[in-house]
Design goal:
Blueprint: H1 2-18, H2 25-33, E1 37-40, H3 45-63, H4 82-89, E2 92-107, E3 116-128, E4 131-143, E5 151-158, E6 163-164, E7 181-187, E8 190-196, H5 202-213, E9 222-226, E10 230-233, E11 265-268, E12 280-283, H6 290-295, H7 300-309, E13 321-327, H8 329-336, E14 353-360
Antiparallel strand pairs: 1-2, 2-3, 3-4, 4-5, 4-6, 7-8, 7-14, 8-13, 9-10, 10-12, 11-12, 11-13
Length: about 375
């Protein structure tokens, strides 16, 4: 009996060695993750076009119920991406926007047409419940052949559910109405006039008006000036007075979803969330950076206004906007162009605020 058992054990071991090992989905993925880059470089227009065409074909195939195996990298089954493919199939009014490469490299010891790898951010739009959504998916792709369609999916790094980007009312760009309360920053080179938004930032506007009426800002310089960025005033950084406010110390942010850092926007300076005091800055940048606009999921009319007016879209929803310059942008440019040290401090004769007046707009 013992001999029979040993014989069966020996046969089992032999069969185990002879039979091929089972292939797990994770094994193919790990092959791509462990590949050694040979060269890292920027993708060009042709690369973007190829990835775009393949992604658009993938969405179309997913929505028509086709077999999606041809879009998957070698060794990976379409079932590995079933959740992602299901989401693509449900998209309504799909429209491709652009592709951006965050990583693009050649792989060591691979044939010339099968050695490219990329991590690509895919920007596209869809509709849901009548609202426009912008998606930013991040996909790891492998080039596996000579043709346009040879970019294959080997990993979904990030899948966006979509951010609403329908147009919003841009109230901050409307002219002030007769009788509306405005602020006039009287500097030693002229006046800068602002609209205020008490409905969107009531505590902030109350604080600004209260400090102005107390003379807090009288004779203070613009102590941080950066051409092509912004100018700032209030307590000097590091003075220990940054938390002085009408509310007795730092107070909370008031972030409005329909106020943006367009050129001329007036916002509170801070040292982190809910640290508003007395410092404020005025956006001077005359052109919004293209990369910033791409990376920010903004409503289309907001994006167009940034392209038209300039500004700092990457600051949106991080600082409390409470006003908008409607007269005196040329003075902001003059203030920003002062010669300054690396910290933005003007080197000589800084331009100052003589006072800030709160007035009713006369029209």
């Amino acid at each position: 009996m013992k001999k029979v058992f040993l014989l069966l054990l020996a046969m089992t071991l032999m069969l185990t060695l002879l039979l091929p090992a089972p292939i797990f989905k994770a094994e193919a993925s790990s092959v791509y993750e462990s590949e050694v880059p040979l060269h890292t470089y920027r993708g060009h227009g042709g690369d973007r076009e190829e990835v775009q065409q393949n992604f658009e074909a993938l969405v179309k195939a997913a929505q028509s119920g086709e077999d999606l195996q041809k879009f998957c990298a070698e060794g990976l089954e379409a079932a590995a991406f079933s959740d992602y493919f299901d989401q693509l199939a449900k998209l309504e009014d799909f429209s491709f926007e652009r592709v951006r490469f965050s990583l693009f490299y050649e792989v060591k010891d691979k044939p010339v047409f099968e050695k490219l790898r990329t991590v690509a951010t895919i920007f596209y739009n869809s509709k849901k419940d009548g609202k426009t959504l912008r998606h930013t998916d991040e996909l790891a792709l492998a080039k596996q052949g000579k043709e346009t369609g040879d970019w294959k999916l080997w990993k979904v790094v990030f899948h966006s559910a979509g951010i609403p980007v329908d147009e919003v009312a841009l109230k901050q760009l409307n002219p002030p109405q007769k009788g509306e309360q405005i602020a006039v920053i009287d500097t030693n080179i002229g006046e800068i006039k602002l609209r205020l938004f008490p409905d969107s930032a009531p505590n902030t506007v109350e604080n600004f008006i209260g400090l102005a009426k107390k003379g807090y800002y009288d004779d203070l310089p613009f102590n941080r000036v950066y051409d092509d960025f912004m100018i700032q005033t209030g307590a000097l950084d590091g003075s220990g007075k940054e938390d002085e406010s009408l509310h007795g110390g730092f107070f909370d942010d008031e972030i409005a979803p329909d106020l943006f850092h367009f050129r001329g926007a007036v916002a509170m300076g801070n040292v982190g969330p809910n640290t508003n005091g007395n410092q404020f800055f005025l956006v001077q940048k005359p052109e919004a950076g293209e990369d910033d606009l791409i990376l920010c999921s903004l409503p289309e009319n907001v994006k167009k206004k940034y392209e038209e007016l300039g500004g700092l879209p990457h600051l949106d929803f991080r600082y409390t906007i409470f006003g908008q310059v409607f007269e005196g942008l040329d003075l902001i440019d003059k203030i920003a162009k002062q010669e300054a040290d690396d910290d933005g401090m003007p080197l000589k004769d800084p331009i100052k605020m003589k006072t800030i007046r709160i007035e009713e707009f006369e029209g």
